[in-house]
Design goal:
This protein has about 250 residues and is mainly α. It is built from 14 helices and two strands, in the order H-H-H-H-H-H-H-H-H-H-H-H-H-E-H-E. The protein has helices at about 5-20, 25-30, 40-50, 50-60, 75-80, 85-90, 95, 100-105, 110-120, 125-135, 155-180, 190-195, 205-210, 230, and strands at about 215-220, 235. Strands 1-2 form a two-stranded parallel sheet. Helix 3 (about 40-50) packs antiparallel against helix 4 and helix 9 (about 110-120) runs antiparallel to helix 10 (about 125-135).
């Protein structure tokens, strides 16, 4: 007498397991069933980082909870020809921006200094992505532009550049709000804004108080003049057009 399970039994078992685990065992493992989505985050890093495990365990280290701006910041002229080094330094940033634990622990100053590196190294697409990432943190009071803390950067050129980025972000955020694009990803019609105008974003006091550079800082080897916060601080050639995207 055969001891093999019957065809009917196997069919019913498969049906039962499919009803419980509709995505299969692999689907069960990768489903984001926790607020931090750790399993999905690890999968993201394996697809978008050269060192996924190192990044993953960095995210799990609890102290300090909020990330800090790296101390080994380069000057604008040093970054100008180091685009590959900047992207290596920001390993996995495409995926990190989508990971809940990274978004919880990231800070406005870290994001602004990433924009600083991208602008100096002429990585313009990353300026766009980072600006959008910053904008859609609107549900967190820490990411309100007026609450961005003073980095008190000791390097005069870098400090002026960062202050200009803050003011450029304020201008691009107000432009988005004028189109009805809200920081919580909702959208308002022009009729709604006529009756209830959006509240404008303001720069922090420390950013507006940073003086112009005594000597012109030329970025990207161009002397083309543009009416931007960078130009107002004697920083020539910095392109902020990639901050204006929808």
């Amino acid at each position: 007498m055969s001891t093999a399970p019957s065809h009917t039994f196997l069919t019913r078992t498969r049906y039962f397991l499919h009803r419980i685990f509709p995505h299969g065992w692999r689907g069960l493992w990768w489903q984001p069933i926790t607020p931090c989505e750790l399993r999905l985050s690890l999968r993201r890093l394996f697809h978008g980082s050269d060192h996924p495990l190192t990044l993953f365990f960095t995210l799990l280290q609890p102290y300090p909870w909020y990330f800090r701006v790296p101390k080994d910041q380069l000057t604008p002229k040093e970054l100008e020809k180091m685009s590959q080094a900047v992207m290596t330094r920001q390993d996995g940033i495409f995926q990190l921006r989508c990971i809940p634990l990274f978004r919880m622990r990231d800070t406005p100053l870290c994001s602004i200094y990433r924009i600083y590196e991208y602008m100096c190294a002429n990585i313009h697409d990353q300026v766009q992505y980072e600006t959008e990432y910053f904008y859609y943190h609107g549900d967190d009071p820490r990411w309100a532009m007026e609450n961005v803390p003073d980095p008190q950067d000791e390097n005069e050129e870098r400090y002026a550049f960062v202050a200009s980025i803050v003011e450029a972000l304020v201008a691009s955020f107000n432009w988005r709000l004028s189109l009805g694009l809200q920081r919580d990803r909702s959208h308002r019609s022009f009729a709604e804004m006529d009756t209830n105008p959006p509240q404008r974003v303001c720069a922090p006091d420390w950013a507006t108080a940073v003086p112009p550079l005594p000597v012109s800082l030329v970025i990207s080897g161009t002397t083309q003049r543009r009416k931007t916060p960078f130009e107002a601080r004697n920083i020539i050639g910095a392109i902020n057009g990639h901050m204006y995207t929808v």
